[in-house]
């Protein structure tokens, strides 16, 4: 079954277009190296919970929106190989991109797919 990297970030509302531009570019590189899907979703109905929630998890501020993203690969090995190539790609290095979010508050991880209907 497929393998998935999942991400949650808080993006300033004023940076959504810059985030979309960066993600479109970065996603094309992931896809070029073999990722099957690259998906970015902007929070629309993401309440701030009493104990836990997406906004709490990334310490979202009033002027930020939660973005939930994932990348699908054929396997864990393909993910590792693709990510190594992406991290070495010079197009994502240097000063050409200023990150439109605070990467210190990003939550991410790799997941084995359990079920897909």
Task: Outline the structure in words.
- Pfam families: DUF1428.
- InterPro entries: Dimeric_a/b-barrel, DUF1428.
- This is DUF1428 family protein.
- The longest helix has 17 residues, at 16-32.
- The protein has a single domain (3-95, 105-112), classed as Alpha-Beta Plaits, CATH 3.30.70.
- A four-stranded antiparallel β-sheet has the order 2-3-1-4.
- It has three helices and four strands; from the N terminus they run βαβαβαβ.
- With 117 residues, the protein is of the alpha+beta class.
- The protein is globular.
Rounded Rg: 15 Å
Q: What share of the residues does DSSP label as strand, in percent?
A: 25-35%
Can you count the beta strands?
4
In N-to-C order, the SSE pattern is EHEHEHE
Give the averaged pLDDT, no decimals.
95
Report strand order across the widest sheet.
2-3-1-4
Number of domains: 1
Q: Point out poorly predicted stretches.
A: none
CATH architectural grouping:
2-Layer Sandwich
What distance lies between the first and last C-alpha atoms, to the nearest angstrom? 12 Å
Class from helix and strand fractions: alpha+beta
């Amino acid at each position: 079954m497929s393998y998935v990297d999942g991400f949650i970030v808080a993006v300033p509302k004023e940076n959504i277009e810059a985030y979309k531009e960066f993600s479109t570019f970065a996603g094309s590189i992931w896809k070029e190296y073999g990722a099957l899907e690259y998906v970015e979703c902007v929070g629309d109905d993401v309440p701030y919970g009493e104990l836990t929630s997406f906004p709490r998890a990334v310490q979202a501020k009033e002027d930020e929106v939660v973005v939930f993203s994932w990348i699908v690969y054929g396997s864990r090995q393909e993910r590792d190989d693709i990510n190594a190539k992406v991290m070495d790609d010079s197009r994502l290095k240097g000063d050409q991109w200023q990150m439109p979010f605070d990467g210190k508050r990003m939550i991410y991880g790799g997941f084995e797919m359990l079920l897909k209907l």
